[in-house]
Design brief:
By secondary structure, this protein is mainly α. Helix content is 59%, strand content 0%. The chain contains 4 helices and no strands.
Length: 70
């Protein structure tokens, strides 16, 4: 993830749509899931990632494949 000066790469800024899109793609979640995770555990990226991994046993891509939507 390329970061602009002054942006902390270990923080998820839900007020910046560009950053949100990058984090959502990196973590394979929707914007809504990412916002919920930040609301639950704060904006520290490692905490957000652990929260998301702990709340679902499969990725969104796995679910799409299971549904045959690919």
């Amino acid at each position: 993830m390329t970061m602009q000066p002054g942006i902390q790469p270990d923080r998820v800024n839900v007020n910046n749509t560009g950053e949100m899109a990058q984090w959502a793609k990196k973590l394979d979640v929707t914007d809504a899931q990412l916002r919920e995770a930040v609301a639950a555990v704060g904006d520290k990226a490692s905490d957000v990632e652990m929260h998301l991994k702990g709340t679902r046993s499969t990725t969104n891509a796995d679910r799409v494949d299971e549904l045959g939507a690919n």
